[in-house]
Amino acid sequence: MSDASLIEAAAAVRENAHAPYSGFKVGAALRTPSGAIHCGCNVENAAYPEGTCAEAGAIAAMVAAGEYAIAELVVIADSPEPVPPCGGCRQKLREFAVDGDVPVIMATTGGEKRIMSVAELLPGAFGAAHMGKR
Ligand code: THU
Q: What is the pTM assigned to this prediction?
């Protein structure tokens, strides 16, 4: 699957976002090493802190499908500049990224694109290795 089709998948799921409070719909699509695509959108809540990000939704869909590795992820929003994942989502991405080089493609619905690796987004990340795991 090309970057273009992963961006298309993220743009499509973005339409389903539940964002009545911020009015800011976000979509995310990730590809696993098997080639499968998992998508998520932001899901806000009247109790604001209970809202979840698009990236978290895509990760939850991946895990629910029995997959645990991210090879590439796209996040897309209707924003003047590409939107970077929030701090919490960077840590969630690091948990499942196959390595630090995994590209995170930040796209806008207007066609702008910026790419950073998971390691660039979260340098010095805490991970399983710090607990002697994996
Ligand atoms: N949001 C995401 O879903 N992903 C991001 O990378 C940035 C922010 C959502 C959370 C909230 O529903 C809305 O955007 C405004 O912060």
A: 0.96
Q: pLDDT tens digits, residue range 55-104? A: 999 999 999 999 999 999 999 999 999 999 999 999 999 999 999 999 99
C-alpha distance from residue 100 to each of 17, 36, 71, 82 (Å):
28, 20, 10, 20
Does residue 38 contact residue 58 with C-beta atoms inside 8 Å? yes
State how many domains the chain has: 1
Task: Please report, for the domain that includes residue 28, its CATH number.
Answer: 3.40.140.10
List the 113-117 sheet strands across, edge first: 37-41, 26-31, 72-77, 103-108, 113-117
CB 28 within 8 A of CB 5: no
Containing structural domain, residue 56:
3-131
Q: In angstroms, what is the span from residue 132 Cα to ligand 1's centroid? A: 32
| 134 CA distance to ligand 1 middle (Å) | 31
